[in-house]
Design goal:
Number of strands: 0
Distance between the termini: 50 Å
Organism: Dichotomosiphon tuberosus
Number of helices: 9
Strand content: under 5%
Number of domains: 2
Oligomer: single chain
Subcellular location: Plastid, Chloroplast thylakoid membrane
CATH topology of the largest domain: Serine Threonine Protein Phosphatase 5, Tetratricopeptide repeat
GO biological process, one term: photosynthesis
CATH class of the largest domain: Mainly Alpha
CATH architecture of the largest domain: Alpha Horseshoe
InterPro entries: PSI_Ycf3_assembly (IPR022818), TPR-like_helical_dom_sf (IPR011990), TPR_rpt (IPR019734)
Keywords: Chloroplast, Membrane, Photosynthesis, Plastid, Repeat, Thylakoid, TPR repeat
Order of helices and strands: HHHHHHHHH
Shape: elongated
Radius of gyration: 18 Å
Structural class: mainly alpha
């Protein structure tokens, strides 16, 4: 069953109708249309927790998509799935690739910071204080950049930076 047939709530149906209409009227190539369709299906599967299906759709979208900006969002979403599965190393790889194509992707910067902060907390629990400081400093650097790009977002990160003297 195609992803289009599974969308049974109003928002999903509305998004699908709008996206399909835009695909028909916008002057885009057939590959761009296919790529967007795979991306949309990937987002839908991801939102339902169907990560394997989402990854298949994202990989197909990556195969077809040539625009670096659009590829950055596909890579970012692949990173989200790996982070959800606890694969933080793989997640970081995809976030870095997303940032190479779109340095203004503040969400990727934030998620990288969250992973470094998490790893810093793990090091702290093991009393590896020097390593935890390095990881916390890296988290701070990524959060500062995310906040610079999106000053009204990441309030908790802003508070953490202030409380730890990293602002």
């Amino acid at each position: 069953m195609s992803r289009k047939q599974k969308n049974d709530n109003f928002i999903d149906k509305t998004f699908t109708v709008v996206a399909d209409t835009l695909l028909r009227i916008l002057p885009t190539s057939q590959n761009e249309k296919k790529s967007f369709s795979y991306y949309r299906d990937g987002m839908s599967a991801q939102s339902e927790g169907e990560y394997a299906e989402a990854l298949q759709n994202y990989y197909e979208a990556m195969r077809l998509e040539i625009d670096p900006y659009d590829r950055s969002y596909i890579l970012y979403n692949i990173g989200l799935i790996h982070a959800s599965n606890g694969e933080h190393g793989r997640s970081l790889e995809y976030y870095y690739q997303a940032l190479e194509r779109n340095p203004s992707l503040s969400q990727a910067l934030n998620n990288i910071a969250v992973i470094y902060h998490y790893r810093g907390m793990q090091a702290l629990e093991k009393e590896r204080f020097e390593i935890s400081k390095i990881l916390f400093d890296k988290a701070g650097d990524y959060w500062k950049e995310a906040i610079r790009l999106a000053p009204t977002n990441y309030i908790e990160a802003q508070n953490w930076l202030k409380m730890t003297g990293r602002e």
